[in-house]
Amino acid sequence: MSASFTVRSGLNIVRHVVPASTPSFKLACNTYRRTTPLPTPIKSTPPIIFTHANGFHKEIWEPVISRLSPPWANSDMYAFDCRNQGDSAVLNKDVLEKHFDWYSYAHDILQIVDTFGLKKAVGVGHSFGASAFFLAEVMRPGTFSAIVAVDPTNFPKEIYMNAPIDDHPMAQLTLRRRDTWKSREECKVNLLQKKFFKAWHPEALDLYIEHGMLDVVNEDGSTGITLKCPKYQEATTFACVGTGLYDSFEGISEIQIPIHIVSGEDSDINPEELVKMKLARCKYGTLEIMKGVGHLLSLEKPQETADQISDFLDRVLELPVEQEQLKARL
User: Fold this and answer.
1) CATH of 2-163+240-329, one of 3.40.50.1820, 3.40.30.10, 3.40.50.2000, 3.40.220.10
2) ω into residue 258 within 30 of 0, thus cis?
3) Which of 4, 65, 221, 231 has its CA 20 to 30 A from that of 157?
4) Cα distance between residue 110 and residue 141, in whole Å
């Protein structure tokens, strides 16, 4: 495992490269701690792991991480790039495969847990990153103390039918997207012309452009940027779900820990009827439908998303007092 350090948005960030659950792959993982802990009662908080949606990367969670309320703001936090996306895609460029099984994301979550020795972590995932937490907890019950599922992408088979990449509408849309620009400045101007990106919080958009792009030198010697996640990898993640997409829906009913689903009122992934079907499968589940946002609610409203996470954890987790620190104060 290798590591390097930086500071951003009031956070000490350590960048790690760790083995994935498949030996030939590696994972890029950031760990976060506040530069100055927020005042809070002397409580021991669990670690929190964040997973991103398809086509995104770990840094996209930083606006949410930096806005968590105490005591959760003082937790050790982890965010990693799915093996075929973000910095992990760069690390694995020579071994990326034509197909992507969603179970690999779940196995890699458990690999992060084991690598860092995490006990009873909280899982916070967006889209298929949320589904991966469901799969991971079903595979290894008791790994997590709670899960926050931000507009989770998991469906019964009768709603979402798997399709080859050539016939999958989301995959084909992805393959047609632009993936090169002359500079990050040009990229930002271009993205802000699109309705999809206009709704994002400015911090999220800047982080997406800064950390989701790779500097390249073209054949003519000019410089530019391209997506770290190759378009084909994003497309195949939409199309080649394996059984993970369905199993993460069915498996919710087996999970014995609190689950909080946060969905966008305008989500094209989770219409109200479907998200309530998911809630009904949760043994210990709660639901919040956030007004005025869609599937990318954590990118559009990081403060409200952070509040949902903090408030949920306040309700469901009783934190032990750190006795040694209490004695030191006395």
Assistant:
1) 3.40.50.1820
2) no
3) 231
4) 11
The closest of 298, 258, 283, 289 to 271, measured between CA atoms, is 289
pLDDT tens-digit map of 257-292: 999 999 999 999 999 999 999 999 999 999 999 999
74: helix, strand or coil? helix
Distances (CA, A) of 62 to 54, 194, 234, 293: 17, 23, 22, 19
pLDDT tens for 61-119 read 999 999 999 999 999 999 999 999 999 999 999 999 998 999 999 999 999 999 999 99
Residues facing 226 on adjacent strands: 180, 214
CA distance 3 to 212: 19
Asked if residues 264 and 288 have their Cβ atoms less than 8 Å apart, the reply is no
Joined tokens for residue 185:
């400045």
Cα four-point dihedral sign 58, 300, 152, 288 = positive
Candidates 152, 151, 119, 148; CA nearest to 314 is: 148
CA distance 120 to 48: 9
Bridge partners, 29 (sequence order) = 16, 80
> DSSP class of residue 243?
T
Q: Is 107 helix (H, G, I), strand (E, B) or coil?
A: helix
Query: What is the Cα–Cα distance from 72 to 306, expressed in whole angstroms?
Result: 10
Q: Where are the alpha helices (DSSP H) in the chain?
A: 62-65, 86-91, 103-116, 128-139, 169-175, 184-191, 195-198, 202-211, 231-239, 244-250, 272-281, 297-300, 302-316, 323-329
Are the CB atoms for 52 and 30 separated by under 8 Å? no
* CA–CA gap between residue 179 and residue 297 (Å, rounded): 23
